[in-house]
């Protein structure tokens, strides 16, 4: 499958042990400058001291590319009761603050998304791995 440059919505399915289910996050492809920004914020150097800020970078940049959640995968508490939450404005379960809820309660999922998208680097194929078009 070809890479669609500038894709506005991709889906990542995560096996979530806390809910014992699979959850879907929608994200857009990061730009090259966003990839550079992520890398620059994950590792910092001040004089001779290098510090790692990977968790913070994953959270910040993961939230930047997060564009939605799959309907039916997330509930929020309203007066102590679970209520369905959607990021789709056409859904009856749409909640305008869905992104804030995800940031506040699902940082592990956001960081997993960022890890796949930003840290899941491309690999060089060997001649045995190569597939010709149409196969």
Characterise the protein shown here.
The protein is an alpha+beta fold. It has one domain (10-119). The protein is 33% helix and 25% strand. The chain has 4 helices and 7 strands; from the N terminus they run E-E-H-E-E-H-E-E-E-H-H. It has helices at 32-42, 54-65, 98-105, 107-119, and strands spanning 10-16, 21-27, 43-46, 49-52, 66-69, 75-78, 81-84. The strands form 3 sheets. Strands 1-2-5 form a 3-stranded antiparallel beta sheet. A two-stranded antiparallel sheet has the order 3-4. The protein has a two-stranded antiparallel sheet with strand order 6-7. A hairpin with a 2-residue loop joins strand 6 and strand 7 (81-84). Helix 2 packs across helix 4 and helix 3 crosses helix 4. It is globular. The mean pLDDT is 92.
């Amino acid at each position: 499958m070809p890479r669609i440059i500038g894709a506005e919505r991709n889906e990542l399915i995560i096996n979530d042990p806390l809910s014992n289910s699979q959850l879907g996050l929608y994200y857009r492809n990061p730009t090259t400058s966003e990839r550079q920004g992520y890398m620059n914020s994950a590792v910092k150097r001040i004089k001779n001291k290098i510090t790692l800020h990977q968790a913070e970078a994953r959270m910040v940049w993961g939230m930047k590319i997060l564009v939605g959640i799959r309907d039916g995968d997330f509930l929020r508490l309203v007066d102590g009761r679970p209520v369905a939450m959607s990021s789709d404005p056409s859904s009856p379960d749409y909640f305008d603050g869905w992104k804030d809820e995800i940031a506040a309660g699902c940082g592990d999922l956001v960081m997993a998304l960022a890890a796949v998208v930003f840290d899941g680097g491309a690999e060089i194929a060997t001649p045995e791995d190569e597939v010709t078009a149409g196969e």
